[in-house]
Every structure is written in C-alpha cells, then in structure tokens.
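Students often ask why we bother encoding 3D structure as a string. The short answer is that it lets us treat folding as translation between two languages. Here is a chain of 274 residues written in the first language.
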Amino acid sequence: MTKLKNIKVVVSDLDGTLLNPQHRISDYTKSIFQELHNQGYLIVVATGRHHLDAMAIIETLEIPVYLVSSNGARIHSPNKEQLFAFNLDSDIVKAALNVEIDPAITVVLFKENVWQTNKWNERLNSFQAELKYRPELVDYKNLEDFGAIKIFFSCDDHEKLVKLKDDVLANSSEHLHHAFSLPTCLEFMDKSIDKAVAIEQVLEKEGYTLEQAVSFGDGFNDVQMLAASGKGLIMGNAPAVLKETLPDLEVIKTNAEDGVARYIASKILDKELV
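And here it is in the second language, the structure alphabet:
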C-alpha cells in the first residue's frame, strides 16, 4: 500500500483506541509503535486520563511519547517535563456542582496527585492496571477547595448524565464546555481546553502542523482532534452518534482488533497484514 503522504505525526487516544478492552497496550501495538519511532515519526498520546495514570501506560511502549492528558489541561514532554498546566478555579467548580446530582452518579474531581470522589467505583478503578493515581473519598458538602484539573461524572444511565450536563451548563456555560468520552462518562473542562489545542502546541514546538498528523479516537472528547488532523480515523467501537457527527471520516477496526496498530502497519509502515 502507498504510504499516507505528508504524515509525520501519529496521535492516539488511549481508552477505546490504543488500549484493548482490558485497558492495556497489546504486544502487537507496542511493536508497531516502536517501529514508528524507529522510522522517525513523532508520537503523541492525547487522553482524558490524568497524567500520572496515563504515564504508567505509555511507559510500556518504551519509546519517547508526548503526553496530552486531562483532555488538554496538561502537556508533558517525553522526558516527563511539564510543558503546560491549567486548573479550574475553585469557585467555578463549586458553582458547577451546585446542582441536583442523581445519587447513581459518581462525581470525581481530578486533582494534581489524587482524584476526589463521592463514592468508591470499582469500574473506574479497573481502568488502572496499576493504581498510580489514587482515589480519595470526600464529602463535597464539607469540601473547601474545589480547584481541579477537570470535573468528571460517571453513570451507567446515559440519560441521567445528559440531564446533569444540561443542568451544569445552565449554571456554568460561560466557563465550561463538556464532552462524553464514553456514553457513561461526562467531563467538563475550561472552554479554552481541548485536545486539539494542546496537540497544536506540541506540534508547533516540534515544527509540525495538524495537517501532517494522523489521529485516532473513539469519543466526543476527540472530535476537534479528529476533524483538524490531516487524516482523522474513528474506531469501529466508537458510538454510532460519533460516526454520524463526523460522517466524512473513515471508520477502522475496533480496539479489540488492534485497529490503530493494524491501520498504521498497513497504511503508514507498508507492512503486510496477516
């Protein structure tokens, strides 16, 4: 197959994209990304995860990787130097949480070294193979400092999250924007924060543009990144509504099938697929 012309950068989300359903990077994916690095491609991981959590994952690739985390609120260089950081003001977060929140919803504030939550959530803990970013149970009624990297809500009932999204935006739309990283996960960030904006900062530092990047994603926190890239690719396991939102973008194999690595192997590295 002919290589994608002008592509010098590979950008990938983690959950539902680079990671398999067990929240791990497969050996095959690792080998493909090591070959990408050996051939001189710049590699960026852009995730909603906290940087402590994400760093533990990308270290398993054993190659230099730029990390955009918390949907763009943090940028770290391959040597773990923090290049950019943005925190939500305590009063803004407090106002956002000053709504009726269904008891079924898990509330999380991403702090620098811990994530504060109103309840223990085994499914959220399962996303970390090693607990590098630890939870801290809190009573939000007694919390004094609401400052956070981002606000995160989780619930199996998507409609409850949709209602909460509307209520939060009614209070805080001038400061916050939202994304459903999964149908069960609702996130709020400052309006200036987005994966695409952060990725552009990385690429400018390295002398590239998003037009020279291929990007992979599966959630609504990936929309701007996918749309702005020279080639944006949607995972086969992404929600149908994301595919409908970006109808011109190609849909590839699922994360369970190593979709990212298989696409790279075939279309960028010119490898025969078995």
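Translate back mentally: The first strand starts at residue 9 and ends at 12. Keep this in mind for the problem set.
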